[in-house]
Design a protein that fits this description.
The complex is a heterodimer of chains A (135) and B (670). With 135 residues, chain A is of the alpha+beta class. Helix content of chain A is 28%, strand content 35%. Chain A folds into two domains: 31 residues; 93 residues, OB fold (Dihydrolipoamide Acetyltransferase, E2P) (Beta Barrel), CATH 2.40.50.140. The radius of gyration of chain B is 27 Å and the shape is globular. The chains are: A alpha+beta (135), B alpha+beta (670). At the A-B interface, helix 1, strand 1, strand 7 and helix 3 of A face helix 5, helix 7, helix 9, helix 10 and helix 11 of B.
Chain lengths: 135, 670
């Protein structure tokens, strides 16, 4: 009996250790802080590997030489964002949309985003892209 | 019509309330009369919710934009086949749809059990209708699809044509994806209700498990198929070149599927060996909890996701309902622990039982990892007031090794004997599969595959496929010898005699195909360029040339279309035409992916945008190996599950045998 338990314990132990180790390293690699524009500007939040959420200022989107810059706002606060990612921007990325920019907040006060997600502005109380997955 | 819908909903709520109370009373008093009346309330509930659904569909199909729901989710020019799904395109409608499916399941349960499981039924009805009370109440109070468009409240005008269905949803697999997923989610309430009834009546043999066998497989099948359709939709429509992004909403659908998979396997151990009784009840509870939790997660907007709805008022309702489920389930389980003693102990580490046990451990570890990643933003916000999210690499690092272990068990488990497996039989059963996998593994290595996980996945796929096929082969050979049948006929009879076992093997083969498809992820390549007529783009061994850029107009949308001719290794493969559409009603742009799919690889082209300065199109191209195997795997799993649902010849004999002792048991109880 004891022997059997031991064998089982070893089997499950190995699985747990491997999974835990993978979980920890995966976690360290991929964890990102989520902040609002105001928290980012306050300087207290993390500056690297940050996702900042706000509203794309209408009319601020500037596409030039394959570079896209815009301002991300929260009420009266705003931060300039430069998109340096390779993926094309999502269709929902338009002025007034809620967006999440992922990247680093550089010393010169510009947020360099390598990834942008956007949710359509709620003018039409936007239906989600996939209601089925909601539920 | 709005009034009719509201009346249906209110009456449905009243009948559900009555049904749940009468069910509980009928069970407590053991009164057939009260129980019958509760069952009639279920049917009335179904009729009323059907009236509400019909009313909403009528409003949608007749373009009645007085109601807020129809106005914001439909439009006049929408084709009919996209108008019907408007029912579940938004929060209010989908909650009503959910309630409706629940009512249909409940009515079916009542009807199919009108002569069976009489001692369980009152409580089954009580639990089903308790859930019905919750869903109809939330729909009524917090997300009523029949509320009038309020002119004072934000909306400044009544849209004459409706605001339109989200264009991303105007896609064939999106028409059936939500109903499939919902049928899966909602259906998990039935095994849960039977488990609760078994606990309440202390009927804790494997009777409730036999009674719910199909009731678990059916929603599990729908859920799995729904997840596949969702992946297919994401791949074909969202235009980022993949089918799974570990988005919280996707995770929410995967969680109950994983827990349900664990349950489907562990019930076998209880049936054969009378073990794992507490575990099985706990798994049913977990599966149901995760189904509701998934809804809560995504509908409440508590986890930020591009998919999820904005903050809404239904969150607190779900939180309370979940708390009730947990409290009720755990209390009942705790009170009945004494009646759930295992009849046997584990005899050996290398046995079928322990194979199942490891399978369950791995699946539950995967549930835990995915759940942890999904809710971590909430936890970190609560604990250190910092919202921390985890990305795909967390999920990949944890679930990939678990998936590979699971794949191994898929092949090895069925070859192990119950109780104890001798070394001799191990050698006999594993020699051929290991040899086959070895050949494949070495070939892949020399073909230049150095990605460890992809290599392991393909190696194990060969191993499992050989294991499963050899089971079929050996069974058919034996039959051929003893019954003097032709090989094909023997194979057919073998399968039909025990559909549960051989259907299960076919599901396992589907899983193998799925993993072959997943392996392809390691070998993706992509490229991007600004293109106009005559421009070239090279990706891997493909060369694309932009032949033309055209724009046009349809009643529903305007579009920009790129026509690209494709050369692979210098050989012409025709043209692909990715589009970018701008839907008029909803004022939203969307990409329309153009695909060239084959078993070996997909050429996936996206018109991602247009450069405002030069007018050139942003063309993005992905070469995705083996993706078609994922869809193939999903279809094979579906077919295998359907086969499992066909009654086995063995089963029918067993049912006849067991009818007698069970009848005796029933008279004793009454």
């Amino acid at each position: 009996m004891g022997n059997k338990r031991l064998k089982f314990g070893i089997g499950i132990g190995i699985i747990l250790v491997v999974v835990a180790w993978e979980a920890i390293t995966g976690f360290q690699q991929s964890k990102t802080y989520y902040v609002t524009v105001r928290e980012l500007l306050s300087g207290k939040a993390a500056r690297h590997r940050v996702r900042v959420g706000g509203v794309v200022a209408p009319g601020s989107i500037d596409r030039r030489n394959g570079m896209v810059t815009f301002r991300l706002t929260q009420d009266s606060d705003s931060v300039p964002v430069t998109y340096v990612g390779t993926d094309p921007l999502p269709d929902t990325f338009v002025g007034g949309a809620q967006a999440i920019a992922e990247g680093d907040y550089t010393a010169d006060g510009v947020f360099r985003a390598d990834h942008i997600q956007a949710k359509c502005a709620s003018k039409y109380q936007a239906a989600p892209p996939s209601p089925g997955k909601k539920g | 019509m709005n009034q009719l819908g509201s009346i249906g909903l209110i009456a449905g709520f009243a009948f559900a309330l009555y049904g749940s109370v009468a069910g509980a009373v009928g069970g407590k008093l053991r009164s057939l009369r009260v129980t019958r009346s509760a069952e009639r309330a279920v049917l009335a509930f179904t009729v009323m919710i059907t009236v509400a659904v019909a009313a909403l569909e009528y409003l949608i199909l007749t373009d009645d934009f007085h109601g807020a729901y129809v106005a914001s989710h439909s439009n006049r020019d929408l084709p009919l086949y996209y108008k019907i799904p408007v029912l579940w395109a938004g929060q209010e409608g989908s909650l009503l749809f959910w309630t409706w499916l629940l009512s249909l399941y409940s009515a079916l349960v009542v009807w199919l059990n009108r002569k069976k499981n009489r001692q369980l039924m009152p409580y089954v009805v009580a639990v089903l209708m308790g859930t019905g009370v919750f869903f109809s109440l939330v729909t009524l109070l917090a997300a009523n699809p029949f509320s009038e468009l309020s002119l004072a409240n934000g909306a400044a005008f009544r849209p004459p044509d409706g605001n339109g269905l989200n264009p991303a949803l105007q896609y064939p697999s999106m028409v059936i994806h939500p109903p499939m997923l919902y049928l899966g989610y909602v259906g998990m309430v039935v095994p849960y209700a039977f488990a609760m009834a078994a606990l309440l009546t202390r009927q804790l043999g494997d009777h409730w498990i036999r009674a719910t066998r199909r009731w678990t497989i059916v929603p599990w099948m729908f859920l799995g198929f729904g997840i596949c359709l969702g992946g297919h939709w994401a791949y074909d429509v969202l235009g980022w070149g993949g089918y799974w992004a570990w988005d919280p909403v996707e995770n929410a659908s995967l969680l109950p599927w994983l827990a349900g998979t664990a349950f489907l396997h562990s019930v076998l151990v209880q049936e054969k060996r009378g073990m794992l009784k507490v575990w099985n009840i706990a798994l049913v509870m977990t599966t149901f909890f995760l189904s509701i939790f998934g809804t809560f997660l995504t509908r409440s907007g508590i986890v930020s996701s591009v998919h999820a709805f904005a903050q809404s008022s239904i969150g607190p309702y779900f939180a309370i309902f979940l708390a009730i489920i947990v409290f009720f389930s755990l209390t009942l389980l705790f009170l009945r622990l004494d009646a759930l003693k295992s009849e046997n102990r584990l005899d050996s580490v290398i046995s079928r039982e322990s194979g199942f046990l490891f399978n369950n451990w791995v699946l539950m570890a995967a549930v835990f990892a995915v759940l942890w990643g999904t809710v971590f933003p909430i936890i970190s916000k609560a604990v250190e007031n910092q919202t921390v999210t985890v990305g795909a690499s967390f999920y990949n690092k944890t679930t990939v090794p678990m998936g590979l272990l699971l794949l191994f068990l898929t092949g090895a488990g069925p070859l192990l004997a119950w109780r104890k497996t001798s070394f001799q039989s191990l050698k006999r059963n594993f020699a051929v599969p290991l040899a086959a996998a070895g050949v494949v593994g070495i070939t892949l290595f020399f073909a230049g595959i150095r990605n460890l996980y992809a290599w392991m996945s393909l190696f194990l796929s060969a191993f499992v496929a050989t294991c499963v096929l050899s089971e079929f082969y050996r069974g058919a050979r034996t039959r051929q010898k003893f019954c003097r049948e032709s090989f094909i006929w023997a194979l057919y009879n073998l399968t039909m005699r025990n559909t549960r076992r051989y259907g299960g093997y076919i599901v396992h083969l589907g899983l193998v195909l799925l993993f072959v498809g997943f392996s392809g992820l390691a070998f993706k390549s992509e490229g991007k360029a600004l293109m106009q007529e005559g421009d070239l783009l090279r990706v891997k061994n493909y060369l694309l040339r932009c032949e033309s850029l055209t724009s046009g107009d349809t009643p529903n949308y305007t579009y920009l279309r790129a026509s690209l001719s494709v050369l692979k290794d210098g050989r012409a493969l025709g043209t692909v035409e990715p589009e970018r559409r701008f839907y008029k009603a909803s004022q939203q742009p969307i990409t329309h992916v153009a695909l060239r799919s084959s078993l070996a690889e997909d050429l996936y082209t996206v018109l991602a945008g247009q450069d405002p300065e030069s007018g050139k199109a942003v063309i993005q191209v992905f070469v995705n190996p083996l993706v078609a195997w994922v869809w193939l795997g999903g279809i094979v799993m579906l077919l295998g599950t359907l086969l499992v649902l066909v009654p086995s010849r063995v089963d029918r004999e067993m049912d006849l045998l067991q009818a007698q002792p069970q009848a005796a048991e029933e008279t004793q109880w009454l």
